[in-house]
Amino acid sequence: MPTKRRRWLGGAMHTLLIGLAIIWIYPFVWMIFSSLKTNTEYMNAGFKLLPEVPRWENYGRAWNVGQFSVYFSNSIIITCTTVVIVIAMCALTGYALGRVRFPGRNWFVAAITATMFIPKGYTIIPIYQIIKSLGLLNTLPGIILAESSGAHVLFILLFMTYFFNLPKELEEASEIDGCGFFRTFVQVMLPLAKPIVATTAIMQFIWTWNSFFVPLIFSINKPEIRTLAVGMYAFVGEHTVDWSGMAAGAAISLLPVIVVFIVFQRFFIEGISGSVKG
Amino acid sequence: MRAATTAARRRDGAAQSLSGRRNRIRFAWAYAFIFPQLLFFLVFTIYPIIMSYVYAFFDWSGFGPLSNFVGLENLARLMQDDQFWNAFRNSLVFIFSKTVILMPTTLLMALILNQAFFRGKVVYRTLYFLPVVTTTSIVGIIMKFIFGNENALFNETLLSLGILKEPVPWLGQAGTAMLVLILVGSWKFFGMMMVYWLAGLQSLPGDIYEAATVDGAGYWQTLRSITLPLLLPVGTVILLLTVVNSMHVFDLVKTLTNGGPYFATETVDLYIYNYAFSASGFPQIGYASAAGIVFGLTIFLLTAALGGLVKLSRDGQSAREAASAKGGI
């Protein structure tokens, strides 16, 4: 293609893609500006985007009156604990599977992979019953347990492949230095697996933060343990006319996950790309 | 001589038992390492899968003992429930429309962004991917405000652009509510599929393209006879992932339309939820489980069919590759 034509084509493409991108993320832009308007302004805004004066007090109202401070800390506690639990379990499992050919190893890998494909019913009901019989219904640990309960096949396989490909000499050298199996894992091998830890952390963070169904059914009778996703849903039902408060609440809920994604997107995109190629 | 071999054998034996001891210790550690995941797996994956079938044969509200065995009664009742089939049809319409909209458009976007000379790839990828990482239930609420009222953003915009003469109650009529649900669902998942396609495009071998350029093939020719055929296996995997993703639409439906108006957008997962966790009346766990099994088996059959397609396209490609390799030599 001649350079001149290519430049023209590139320019046209950019104009098109930028225009489309503005429409694409407009709902979020609109949400942020709506959160800075008064309710009357919101009602009469039409598609006027900017508020006359930014009303930051909407955020204060959502945070205090709307209980978003409680929801926010619940979301943080649930998400961070779940991420730590999932990383610990998957790294340990992946290490054992990748480095040791113990009897039953292949059977284990086959079993966790098979659960992805066999037909299952509505499995949340038995999980609900288990959490109930443990006495953890309507508690934060109950939600955390349910959130970290998946088989984590993708993460385990990522860790397994990564540990499998590390050279044998590393382990041997560390053993000669007097490290046992566990210390070799913690001090030598796990630090090398940082990219996989990062991918697991980011993906699990975003999944748990965005989770709605599990925290919804596990906090039905207990507003104090609602997460942001559930709290927002409840807020809409309870404060039907406080639109700018709702927009502020939505912004409080979405901004953390958007920031985390933009900062760490490399690991997230890699994790997703891995699931297609694999 | 004999003494030497015996000594050597003894030495080997010692080494063997040493390495046997080392192995035993390693095995013990390995079992300890997989134990937490194995426990979680048995309790939260295997047991629930088994029980999701067992519950379906009982009339049970979730409280008290599991004693009222009713056999296939739940299933029979389900098969006769028009509302279930309505939800079933809605789910299929949603899955089908979303897939048909997304497959070509996301591929097109990936092809554009994958151009070597095209700058700003990461910025565009980030922007178009953004809806994927946002909380679906909150997006549902935002969209309800954008499409919901007569003087909401979407109506106002279309009115002032002169596209509409009067406001449309988008979420108040069956057809348009489903349309909004499909469009929002597609918008939310677009970035994910775009990244799938980009990953597929980047895994294509570069030397074929050099050869094509040397042979004087233009862009469209290269696209038609090299890129698209090579993308076929990845494409079928993407199709599979999209269909599977579209089956779970609870968060969006619950917050955007809650199945309304008059069940016009009620999907199977919302239908099951309403029986299992309904706030009014007793939950019908057995009945909900039966519905879960029917839906689970449908998903299984669909994915098995698509999985077969994946395998076929893989086999087809390796056959083609083998043929072209033979032809080349």
Quick overview of this protein structure:
The complex is a heterodimer of chains A (278) and B (329). Chain A is mainly α.
Helix-strand blueprint:
The complex is a heterodimer of chains A (278) and B (329).
Chain A: H1 3-34, H2 39-43, H3 57-64, H4 68-99, H5 105-114, H6 124-133, H7 140-147, H8 153-164, H9 168-176, H10 181-192, H11 194-210, H12 213-218, H13 228-238, H14 243-277
Chain B: H1 2-54, H2 73-79, H3 82-113, H4 121-133, H5 136-147, H6 153-160, H7 174-202, H8 206-214, H9 219-247, H10 250-256, H11 268-276, H12 285-328
Protein name (chain A): Carbohydrate ABC transporter permease
Transmembrane segments (chain A): 12-33, 71-95, 107-131, 143-164, 185-207, 243-264
Family (chain A): Belongs to the binding-protein-dependent transport system permease family.
Keywords:
heterodimer; A: mainly alpha; MetI-like fold; about 75% helix; globular; B: mainly alpha; Sugar ABC transporter permease (chain B)
What does this structure look like?
The complex is a heterodimer of chains A (278) and B (329). Chain A is mainly α. Chain A has helices at residues 3-34, 39-43, 57-64, 68-99, 105-114, 124-133, 140-147, 153-164, 168-176, 181-192, 194-210, 213-218, 228-238, 243-277. Chain A has a domain at 67-238: MetI-like fold (Orthogonal Bundle). Chain A is built from 14 helices and no strands. Chain A is globular. Chain A starts with a helix and ends with a helix. The model of chain A has no long low-confidence stretch (mean pLDDT 88). In chain B, 77% of the residues lie in helices and 0% in strands. In chain B, helix 3 (82-113) packs antiparallel against helix 9 (219-247), helix 7 (174-202) crosses helix 9 and helix 11 (268-276) packs antiparallel against helix 12. The N and C termini of chain B lie far apart (58 Å). The chains are: A mainly alpha (278), B mainly alpha (329). At the A-B interface, helix 1, helix 4, helix 5, helix 6 and helix 10 of A face helix 1, helix 4, helix 5, helix 6 and helix 7 of B. Chain B: It is found in: Cell membrane. Chain B: Residues 88-306 form the ABC transmembrane type-1 domain.
